[in-house]
Amino acid sequence: MSGNMPAAEAINNLIQELNKLPGIGPKSAQRIAFYLLRSPEEESRLLAEAIASLKQKITLCSVCCNLTETDPCPICNNATRDRAAICIVEQPQDILALEHTGVYRGLYHVLHGAISPTEGIGTNEIRIKELMERLQKNSITEVILATNTNLEGEQTAMYLSRLIAPLGIKVTRLARGLPFGTELEYADDMTLTRALEGRQTF
Length: 202
Hints:
Elements: H1 9-19, H2 26-38, H3 41-57, E1 59-60, E2 67-68, H4 74-77, E3 82-89, H5 92-101, E4 106-110, H6 128-137, E5 142-145, H7 151-164, E6 170-173, H8 189-197, E7 200-201
Parallel strand pairs: 3-4, 3-5, 5-6
Antiparallel strand pairs: 1-2, 6-7
Helix pairs in contact: 1-2, 5-8
């Protein structure tokens, strides 16, 4: 396709929408759009349905704020999990990374972000209120802070530890097997396993 040749409006619209996705630049968006155009109609229909059902079926777990199709989510509903421990993560995808290690058998709490004054994200913009209500209502003995090892993650961990300490709950932080600046979802299983097993009192 030459640089001056305008694409049909339907193609341009799709390229623009794909370009809004994280990690998808204009060239990738163009490649995906033309791939979908060439692929069987059934494939495009299944993709469109999967995207639509994502918004219709997925809700937040009323206990841990994880993304789920059933409320409470399967982890909160699992009677074999250790109900005395809660691992606090920034995003739902962090749970997938930690669960993949098979090491941690407690519960989770998803903040849906980290404190970041520069981005206008304060303590009210993330799920801290729900966390504190859970800690006051249930007999939790340990809270593991598994926020990312970057400035925002560290800030959030410090704030939460100050909030939780007066409740008499042991507060631990993932061990420093995670290099500073690492996002949990990209860490490998071995690094996450060591970080969980070597967690330290915060």
